[in-house]
Design a protein that fits this description.
The complex is a heterodimer of chains A (about 170) and B (about 350). Chain A has about 170 residues and is mainly alpha-helical. Chain A has helices at about 5-25, 30-50, 50-75, 90-110, 115-120, 130-140, 140-165. The N and C termini of chain A lie far apart (about 65 Å). Chain B is mainly α. Chain B has one domain. Helices cover about 65% and strands about 0% of the residues of chain B. The chains are: A mainly alpha (about 170), B mainly alpha (about 350). At the A-B interface, helix 2 and helix 3 of A face helix 4 and helix 5 of B. Chain B: GO terms for molecular function: NADH dehydrogenase activity; oxidoreductase activity, acting on NAD(P)H, quinone or similar compound as acceptor; quinone binding.
């Protein structure tokens, strides 16, 4: 086994284990912390794919900012198993059905992954680097890129409107 | 069968270098606690610690030993795992940044060329930024696990403060990146060696970065997270013994590392003199690397002194003042700086 393979298996096991622990933890604070572990494992995968920029941005944005806000809210509301209201039976059944449907979609999507594996993937030294990424974003994908910035602007305006409602 | 095709000599070299850097960080942080008390005494016209050893130089060791032998208290109502995880995380995130800082130029030792940098990744500055944004977890987790209202208040203050000041810090860095065109810290230092130090090109950006670094390190005037007259001890109210020591120590390591980052980004890193080509001295590579590392440490010490100087001169902000400064002054200022920098670069390229 090569070192990249060992790292791949280590990170994969870590990601799956972290995700399972995140879902099964009773304490929401533990769930948030396990989710952060998952993000780190996924960032590790990005680095293995030579996408260093994506890896570090994943950590800055998700682990560093969004999960801090999650933790913030959970700590302030002090959620735990005792204060959590019991959900009724129908809601649980609906949850199981929704989960199974999602599983079905995943299986359908991954069914043909064997064929994709055969196609050569060029992961040259330059692919995931910030220079290549920037050039591609501002030439081939400039319109979607700019439109997504409008999306962020609308989210900001929405947050300000919600914040100002009380006054 | 070859299990791992790895250059073991390189691994060994890096391991030794990491150990050296961590030891240096710890020793510097240890003596920063001493320096802090001496500077405070000097500013307040006192003598300061002078009993332990000659000139009081053994004072930090005495403090450390005291921390070790204090009673270890874990509150019964706390979450034990997270209570221990908190200070450990604070310490780890404080140490992680040192991996991408170029401590000196290439040196030759035992026939090997050794780069005095643990990892010259091509996203170095983003790595620093990522680790800084993770630094808040140690404080938040510890403060929540203590199960104490005052601790939680301190933790929440720290979190919102760090998130707020990260934005201005990032914006001031964007202006710098426009000039250098590279995210690698090693590359940035090389550019500054050949041209101007970035401080002369980005004075406003440096000022914003400095203020944000104060806020990210939770130092006065931004130490709202441990405002002792309102929150007892803030996030570490419930901590005792070496776990408290870890929190306090992490703050000093953070100061050391952010001083190193500022020296690297804006003051030429291991470049010895601005506007001067040191190769004209004709010294050997090893000596130059040593002199460069020494120059970097002098710059770091100057920044550390500024950290302490500000702490003992400026009183603590009120919380609304802190937020106003971050969101309504520094962020617009950083945006203005970014626009001006972009305009000038565009104008010069025409």
């Amino acid at each position: 086994m090569e070192i990249t393979q060992i790292l791949f298996w280590f990170l994969s096991v870590l990601a799956v284990f972290g995700a399972l622990m995140m879902v099964t933890s009773k304490n929401p604070v533990y769930s948030v912390l396990w989710l952060i572990v998952v993000f780190f494992a996924i960032s590790g995968h990005y680095i293995l794919l030579n996408a260093q920029f994506l890896a570090i941005v994943n950590i800055i944005v998700y682990a560093g900012a969004i999960m801090v806000l999650f933790l913030f809210v959970i700590m302030l509301m002090n959620l735990n198993a005792e204060t959590e209201p019991q959900k009724n039976k129908w809601l649980k059944i609906a949850g199981v059905v929704a989960g199974c449907s999602l599983m079905l979609v995943f299986v359908a999507a991954l069914r043909q992954s064997d064929e994709l594996l055969k196609a050569p993937v060029s992961m040259g030294g330059e692919t995931g680097l910030i220079k290549t990424l920037g050039k591609t974003l501002f030439t081939d994908y400039v319109l979607p890129f700019e439109i997504s910035s409008v999306l962020f602007l609308s989210a900001m305006v929405g947050a300000v409107v919600i914040g100002k409602k009380g006054d | 069968m070859i299990l791992l095709a790895v250059d073991w000599a390189l691994v060994l070299e890096k391991l030794i270098f990491i150990a050296v850097i961590i030891t240096i960080s710890l020793v510097v942080a240890l003596y920063m606690t001493f320096g802090e008390r001496k500077v405070a005494a000097w500013i307040q016209d006192r003598i300061g610690p002078n009993r332990a050893g000659p000139l009081g130089l053994l004072q930090p060791l005495a403090d450390g030993v005291k921390m070790f032998f204090k009673e270890e208290i874990i509150p019964t109502s706390s979450n034990k795992v997270l209570f221990i995880l908190g200070p450990s995380l604070a310490m780890i995130t404080a140490m992680l940044t040192s991996a991408v800082i170029p401590w000196g130029d290439k040196a030759e030792l035992f026939g090997r060329t050794i780069t005095l940098q643990i990892a010259d990744v091509n996203i170095g500055i983003l790595y620093v930024f990522g680790v800084v944004s993770l630094g808040v977890y140690g404080i938040m987790i510890g403060s929540w696990a203590s199960n104490n209202k005052f601790s939680l208040m301190g933790g929440l203050r720290a979190a919102s403060q760090i998130i707020s000041y990260e934005l201005a810090m990032g914006l001031s860095l964007i202006a710098l990146l426009m000039i250098t065109g590279s995210l690698s810290l090693g590359e940035m230092v090389k550019q500054q060696q050949e041209g101007w130090w970035n401080f002369f090109l980005q004075p406003l950006g440096f000022f914003i970065f400095l203020v944000c670094a104060f806020a990210e390190c939770n130092r006065t005037p931004f130490d709202l997270a441990e405002a002792e007259n309102e929150l007892i001890g803030g996030y570490h109210s419930e901590y005792s013994s070496l776990k408290l020591g870890f929190y306090l120590f992490a703050e000093y390591i953070n100061m050391f590392i952010s001083s190193a980052v500022m020296a690297t980004l804006y003051f030429g890193g291991y470049d010895i003199l601005p506007f001067y080509d040191e190769t004209a001295w004709g010294l050997s590579a090893n000596l130059m690397a040593l002199l460069g590392a020494a120059a970097l440490f002098v710059k770091i010490l100057v920044f550390i002194f500024i950290f302490m100087w500000v702490r003992w001169t400026i009183p603590r902000f009120r919380y609304d003042q802190l937020m106003n400064l971050g969101w309504k002054k520094l962020i617009p200022l950083a945006l203005f700086n970014m626009l001006v920098t972009a305009a000038v670069i565009l104008f010069l390229k025409k």
